[in-house]
Amino acid sequence: MHSINYLFKKLIPNSVYLLKCLTGVGICYWLYIRFPHYPFYWALVSVVIALAPDNSNKMAYDRMIANLLGCAVGLVLFPMHLSQPAAMGVGVMLVLALGYAVKKEETLRSALAALVIILLNEQEVKQWYVPLERVVCVIAGCLAALLVSLLFNLFARVLTRDKMRPPPDAAV
Q1: 128 φ, ψ (degrees, to nearest 5)
Q2: Among residues 93, 88, 147, 96, which one has the least CA distance to residue 118?
Q3: CA-CA to 7 of 20 to 30 Å: which in 39, 42, 73, 146?
């Protein structure tokens, strides 16, 4: 009996995280299909990186800020005439330094992922609009993750509040 209770305690939080991921991926996949000329596949990457199994609105906002940090550093470095490995190395150092400076250590992974998305250049010639499109797509993924997190947290709060209320016929 103890192992069944343990299984349900582990399974239920993970199923909520699974639903969050599926919802976020669904939103971003809709964007990907709806706007095929834009690289919304980066929104798919961004949403799964930004979502986490925790139920903290603060962490959802922090991950959004971290993604913006990675995008900003990537945008600053993209036009510089650095080799891709040098730009990535400098970008990683800058993101880590800035992330520690603003005390966002727990969200640095999201910031680094956004940086890599912005700086990856698979084309021979750097096109100026490519990083801007990617920033829009990363932000779309972050916004989807934030929306999903906020809605799931609101839903969880409503369910918890309803469980704590006494049944209507139990009064008096």
Answers
A1: -65, -30
A2: 88
A3: 146
